[in-house]
Amino acid sequence: MPAVSEVRPSPIAGRWYEGNPQRLKKQVGQYINEAHIPDLKGEVVALIVPHAGHIYSGATAGYAFRCVQGQTRDLVAIVSPLHAYHFASVLTSAHQAYQTPLGTISIDRDAVAHVDELMTKHGSQRLTPLAYDEEHSLEIELPFLQCALQSEFKLLPIMMRSLQPETARQVGLALADTLKGRNALLVASSDLSHFYTLEEANTLDAEMLRQFAAFSPEGIFKADASGTGFACGMAAIAAVLWAARELGANHVAVLHHTTSADETGDTSSVVGYGAAVVLKS
Which residues contact 257 (CB under 8 A, 6 or more apart)? Predict the structure, then answer.
């Protein structure tokens, strides 16, 4: 078998987001700088952000990343869904780094190994390494982090296929143990409702955002099971909320909501986007 390249080449730069470094930096910086957030009471432990193409959800994502603008973090753990089929429940990158037009971000292999060890110890499936993945939902957040944070950081990437609450909880507990005592940030990547009318989408999204605000990973799964709310990355969000809870976070502030209709004008079939911040006060 051919060796896996050290750096994961981007399959989406120039398509899902701007491929020119100067234009990308300007565009993402504008999304962040134009976001008006309330005074935050406490330390930012985690962010919940959308992951559509930047022209659709970039403005909403900017609200979340504005919360860490100018900060320094040594490690960022991003938990996203894996939209493509895979036999494994929880995956990570087989590469040593991610590439974006703004530069290379190294993966913290020791942190990945620690999460894997803890999950195995507690009976969960191991982190399965994946090479040359096409997943957009994790990478789409990287240019925002590269623009918002003041210094370089290492990455702990996790992609979830499983939608089981217990798997999400185990991922969250493993992440919390791995990040404890470190200058780290958690990021959950997820869009909200998919392909409903604008009226229906707003109702579904409002319920899911209520579960965010209630700091309820359990409520996220219940909303999905009852059909009252939807998020494609609900397991990723739940895992991050469980991790943040273990790290002492005690409050979630919902920052912004919009839909694809704001960009396209089509209200017949929309995708919802929400941004939130998880705080320790």
Answer: 60, 192, 205, 206, 209, 272, 273, 274, 275
Nearest to 201, CA basis, from 213, 212, 192: 192
Residue burial 246-276, b: 16+ Cβ < 10 Å; e: rest: bbebebbbbbbbbbbbebeeeeeebbbbbbb
**In whole angstroms, what separates CA 54 from the centre of its chain?**
14
Separation between Cα atoms, residue 213 and residue 245, nearest integer Å: 13
Which residues on adjacent β-strands are paired with residue 47? 187, 277
Of the candidates 179, 175, 159, 170, the one whose C-alpha atom is nearest the C-alpha of residue 94 is 159
Domains and CATH numbers, the chain: 19-280 (3.40.830.10)
Tokens 């040594």 map to which residue?
Answer: 74
Per-block average pLDDT, block size 10, for the chain (281 residues)? 86 97 98 96 97 96 98 98 93 98 98 95 84 96 98 97 94 97 98 96 97 97 96 97 98 97 95 98 91
**Which residue do the tokens 């919902």 mark?**
254
Q: Which residue has the tokens 């994790």?
A: 138
pTM of the entire predicted model = 0.96
Q: Decide: 2 and 39 in contact? Cβ < 8 Å.
A: no
- CA 109 – CA 100 distance, rounded (Å): 19
DSSP string, 39-58: PP-SEEEEEEE--S-HHHHH
Structure tokens at 56: 């659709």
The answer to whether the beta carbons of residues 139 and 14 sit under 8 Å apart is no
